[in-house]
Copper chaperone NosL (Ancylomarina longa), 192 residues
Amino acid sequence: MKNKSRILMILAAVMLLGLFFSPLWKIRLEAPQYPNGVNMYIWINQITGDTPSTLQNINILNHYIGMEFIKPDSIPELTYFPFVIIGMVLLGIGIAFTKKRKLFVFWGVILMILGALGIYDFYLWEFNYGHNLSPTAPIKIPGMVYQPPVFGSKMLLNFKAISLPYYGSLFLVLSMIFNILSYSLNWKNWKK
């Protein structure tokens, strides 16, 4: 195996550490009463906003329509995702020093599966969050649900909810690209 392939695999693994420094996802709420919008950022280990009070403000708004409060401490994924990422980094670095191309593919497939599972988990969280409404909510509209979109935008009463990947997602994509390059760079040499 050539050193370039090994270096690319190490880069693929180390790139995942960027997830600790930038949010994976952004949900933006726009409404006439919020001309600058309200931004919520979802990291692998926390949920933040533009200001320390953003989450509190979102929770106050959600109270009126019966949505549960967003409590980062009660979301188990925010506790174990960092360990999954560190495990993938260590596994990827270890695989870089093997000469087994199947392990390069295995790591890439696991990373893609984890990414897909993360999006599915996010969808389930949003579904439960937007559908399980309190019957004692001050504002009740029969048949109305408040599930934000996973990708794109959606009107929720007078709020436009916009949900899109954020900068942290680029680290995940770059990791996948470096993994594919590390495998394919020496395909002819490995085939022999």
